[in-house]
Design goal:
- The complex is a heterodimer of chains A (about 300) and B (about 750).
- Chain A folds into three domains: about 45 residues, Uridine Diphospho-n-acetylenolpyruvylglucosamine Reductase, domain 2 (2-Layer Sandwich); about 110 residues, Uridine Diphospho-n-acetylenolpyruvylglucosamine Reductase, domain 3, CATH 3.30.465.10; about 110 residues, CO dehydrogenase flavoprotein, C-terminal domain (Enolase-like, domain 1), CATH 3.30.390.50.
- In chain A, about 35% of the residues lie in helices and about 25% in strands.
- Chain A has eleven helices and 13 strands.
- Chain A has a five-stranded antiparallel sheet. A three-stranded parallel sheet of chain A has the order 1-3-2, covered by helices on one side.
- The longest helix of chain A has 24 residues.
- Chain B is of the alpha+beta class and about 750 residues long.
- Chain B has three domains: about 190 residues, Aldehyde oxidase/xanthine dehydrogenase, a/b hammerhead (Aldehyde Oxidoreductase, domain 3), CATH 3.90.1170; about 325 residues, Aldehyde Oxidoreductase, domain 4 (2-Layer Sandwich); about 140 residues, Aldehyde oxidase/xanthine dehydrogenase, molybdopterin binding domain (Aldehyde Oxidoreductase, domain 4), CATH 3.30.365.10.
- In chain B, about 30% of the residues lie in helices and about 25% in strands.
- Chain B has a seven-stranded mixed sheet, with helices on both faces.
- In chain B, β19 and β20 form a beta hairpin.
- In chain B, α15 packs across α16.
- The longest helix of chain B is centred in the C-terminal third of the chain and has 28 residues.
- The radius of gyration of chain B is 27 Å and the shape is globular.
- The chains are: A alpha+beta (about 300), B alpha+beta (about 750).
Chain lengths: ~300, ~750
Amino acid sequence: MLNPHPGLPEFTYVKPASLDEACSFLAEHAGEARLISGGTDLLVRMRDKAYKPAYIVDIKGLDGTDVLTFDPKSGLKVGAAVPMNRMASHPDVQKYYPLLAKAANSVASYQIRNRATIVGNICNASPAGDTLGACLVLGGRLHIYGTDGERFEDLVNFFKGPGKTTLRPGEIVTAVSFPLPEKGAKGAYIKLGRNKLSDLAIVGVTAYGFPDKKTESGFRFIVALASVAATPLMPPAVETILAEKKITEETIAEAATAAMDACSPIDDVRGSATYRKDMVRNLTRNAISDVWGQLQS
Amino acid sequence: MTGNFGQRIIRKDAFDKATGKAKYVADIKAEDMLYGVLVRSIQHAAKILKIDTAAAREVNGVEAVLTSADISGEITHGALIQDQPALAHQVVRHIGEPVALVIAKTKMAAQKGKERVKIAYEPTEAVFDPVEALKPEAPKVQPSGNLITEYHICDGDLEAGFSQADIVLEDEFSVQRISPGYLEPEGALAEYSQDGTLTVWVSSQEPFEDRDTIARVLGIDTGKVRVKSAVIGGAFGGKEDPELQTLAALGAWKTKSTVQMVNSRFESFVGHPKRHPARFFYKIGVDSKTGKITALHAMAYMDTGAYASYGPAVAGILTETLAGVYHIPNVKVDTYVVLTNSPLSGAMRGFGAPQSHFAIESLIDIVANKIGMDPIELREINILKPGDKLFTKVPLDVTASALPICIEKAREAREQMKQLIAAPGKVTGTGVALAMQTMGLGAKVQDTSTHRLEWLPNGNVRLYLGAPDLGQGLAVAAEQMAAEALQIPYDRIETICVDTGLTPNGGVTCASRMTYMSGNAIIRAADALQAELLGEAARLLNVDVNQLTYHKGEILKGGGAHIPASEITSRLAEEGRTIQKEGSFSFPYPKEKTPDHLPIGMPHVMFVFAANIARVEVDLALGSVKVTHLVTVNDVGKVINRLGVEGQIEGGAATGLGYALFEDVALKKNGQWVDGFTEYLIATTKDMPELESIVLEIPEASGPYGAKGVGEIVLVPTAPAIANAVFDATGVRVKQLPISAEVLLEGMKKRQTQ
């Protein structure tokens, strides 16, 4: 209980006419203004008084933020105001980025996903964010608009801590884009919650693998872990083991143990740190085995 | 049959609820309405040194800030023990206790005012465990001490019983605190009239009790308070608490305005009654050759939180069900109801039976495993039969013949489940639990239900239903029974839901008995209504009443003439008269069934029986439990509305499943309670198993058309059936709820290393 007296605090709602206007407003009111798109995290945190913004700035529909595009050459671009359900049900996403659709569909409940956005999930930078792993392993890149114009940032460099990112005052993430997936790539996302729907991840494991002639094993695997450290974690040791050794049950088990050793989870109501570490190993093993099975079939 | 019993009747309120037209308390708006919000305690236990309301009063829009000092009537209330202050008086005893009430023109102003009420606390030591709270050195929650009720019941000779056993086991179990978790949080709206009366809309199971509590706290005559039921979005026992209706009434009375109050989800978690956590210590003796249980000693410690609420009554049913559905010749039970600084626990669906059944039904499986017997067989050997007496000396009638049928169905279901193969990486198991739930409020407790029927000039019959429909569908069942009693089509009945100014007092909707009570009362009202109709017809037609008979909404006169009732009622309307009749029914406690050696509220003498058979799959790597199949067997006496019965069964299974695996209003390491749905999980559609409902209809002789109550029993066997299935799958016996993946995995690891 962060707030013994819930209820939304007072704020002013701002609907800018353009991205430029939104950026200058945000820059002028740094520290007291927050963006709203789906609002599914923001409003809860405001109710709990974790955030007390004087202004909330609505970016829905601004300059193409509600657009999703796919190009068979350059890949996928998902605007900041595209709800998760819309993205996950898009035929091109289902065909080329099934992992992204799967991760999105594991977030909260259907009703929440009607409002929640993938860019919002990224910008919240919660270590438990369900879509972060998929976005990371798929090579997500952020389109960031600021008072100085547009810049791009690879997602791997974006997270700095729980709720902390490299975003500067006045900057807005307008979209996330993904290159075409590697040829023959397969993915898996396994989320451990206490119930089957609606719980935050106790542990979430994303695994992604594809044939790669440059490695000893002939494959490359990337694993991303949720809810086990201050930021989403991509342990390089896991990648190395699976690149250098022939993929066997033992190799997968070794990689899973490396994943466990790389993380430093916390205790909370959902599970203890010890349990979480155990689960990282077990789920990582399951997720890699799942991808390995898909790669062979 | 005009009541269409046994069919799937769509409720008349379904469309309004599905389309958002139904008016819950929060939807009712009045002109110039004020909003009341509570400043609740942030301390587990503390002295209140000072409440400074000056800054709050200065907030623009704030009309009043009320504290205990503003209460002119009685400052405490309580269903059984008058120990709960409407607003905290000098001390606070749990987080969430209301301390001050801010009333303002807008929600925002009320909110602002609330933030500016300054309360100086001096924290005192708090206690959270019922066993700890009974130790002499424990802090006292109330000056009179922490033990508020104890029950001790003996039957037979315990020592002799244990000496007949060759196996004696001792074991401990514990169950957690859970929230009713209804969709609609608590709310109330109170309107002050110029004539000095109050009208209060409530979301409550007990509008008549609310009226009396409001009058007592305000220090006014009950005649000045009228309480009406709004549409209710679930109650599950949790809405047998008068907190908001009393405080909204206080606010309206003081400001001479209309005041609306609605709890946030957080407030609903910490401010409102929950299911009692409890700890159990059992000793059981069994003759391993015959499987006969020879003796049972059970001790139960219930944590009722900071105030009694319905604790002593919940303890009654918990006590009476500590030995489950078994005929054990030598029994001793000891129950202690203990105050702690937890949020209060009170009435909740099952009312003590879910707690005791988790313990006893787990224990029966432990015994079966110990003596190497099939748990179903052990149950079969020991179940109660018609004619047997419970350890309370209450005899069981023919309705207990449901138990052998439950056993038979359990065998069949388990056989089918055993054919199924576990998914890769998982182990599977099946578990069975039997259960009984009592009906009624218990002996020596006044329990009369009155309802009224009126024949309208348009030919419809209006039912003045004196008890609230909580969302479970009481109104439709009552309408069906009224239609049947009058032999008229169901759609000719229209209902006015409880309004203390308009309807008779139907009593509290609780204790699995309102279909039973209202049905019996309605049958009596219908008989009286028919007689009245015939009498008036005789007068108007100028014939002797003996020449008239009543048939399907018409009056038959000799010579084949039939006159519709509406003709009589419309002629009466011209005279400015109506035909309406009340019917009353009191819950029966026949002398031969009601031993009188027990305290008030005990024993209960009518029972419903059930079985659950669960199949689970446990993930060996994760410890997580998935209930894949659940077969439920419930004896309901007689199905009135099949949709209603099925709804109760499915909802009950979800509640039982959540109790078994997820739900826990736990005290966190940071000293705060789990107080929101982010951390408190209920079973979702995706957690639900494939569910099969077997409904038995063994008629209850005293029931309307044979009907009993299904509202509570449905969830009672679910958690122990799941726990027993988990043991069957893993060999790990989890003796505390909820069964978390972490605890189960730990247990599985331990077993491997042994």
